[in-house]
Amino acid sequence: MDISYKIPESVLVVIHTADLEVLLIERADKPGYWQSVTGSKDTIDEPLSETAVREVEEETGIVVSGVASSLQTFPAREGKAKPIVPLNNLRDWQLSNVYEIYLVWRHRYAPGITQNIEHVFSLLVPRDIPIALAPREHLNYLWLPYIEAADKCFSPSNAEAILQLPLHLH
């Protein structure tokens, strides 16, 4: 049997509005655990920006693309239009955190892997952008002013990234 493990390199994408409201999503596997968009690379050579774009779409339904306008819609396979934000609204902070993988999730990684490298990004979106959560991954979402959002996060690295948001505005 071929067991595929998660790659211990991931992205954290802080989705925010121009007035510093931050989107938080509640984990389905841990109700009460609020976070920004996170996710591991699918392959070792997947560029981090592609990981960020893929995870944002998978977890929120927001398509990040090279389109020119500030917000368009993209026809989805299910017949519902998906919101699109320009690729230049995604910012790579060139910041990485190394943290201990929580025991509850360590089984997803190869034996002996205890740490993850997390690369921080932010994504500027309009406040009224539609959010479509992946129901197997997340239960709810909410928008909060950035300081309140940081206080609600269960992950210290996520909270710290949100608090740094004013330093990384477009």
Give an account of the 3D structure:
By secondary structure, the chain is an alpha+beta fold. The protein has a single domain (9-168), classed as Nucleoside Triphosphate Pyrophosphohydrolase (Alpha-Beta Complex). The protein has 3 helices and 10 strands. The strands form 3 sheets. The protein has a 4-stranded mixed sheet, sandwiched between helices. It has a 3-stranded antiparallel sheet with strand order 3-2-10. The relative contact order is 0.27.
Tell me roughly what share of residues is in helical segments: 10-25%
Q: What does the average pLDDT come to?
A: 90
Tally the structural domains.
1
Radius of gyration: 16 Å
**Low-confidence segments, ≥5 residues, pLDDT <50?**
68-77
Find the count of extended strands (DSSP E, 2+ residues): 10
Question: CATH superfamily membership, which one?
Answer: Nucleoside Triphosphate Pyrophosphohydrolase
CATH architecture annotation: Alpha-Beta Complex
CATH class: Alpha Beta
Structural class assignment:
alpha+beta
What strand order characterises the main sheet? 4-1-9-8
Q: In terms of topology, how is this protein built?
A:
Layout: E1 9-16, E2 21-27, E3 34-35, E4 37-40, H1 48-60, E5 63-65, E6 72-75, E7 81-86, E8 90-100, E9 115-124, E10 138-145, H2 146-152, H3 156-164
Parallel strand pairs: 1-9, 5-7
Antiparallel strand pairs: 1-4, 2-3, 2-10, 6-7, 8-9
Characteristic key phrases:
three-stranded antiparallel β-sheet; 3 helices; 170 residues; Nucleoside Triphosphate Pyrophosphohydrolase; alpha+beta; 37% strand; four-stranded mixed β-sheet; single chain
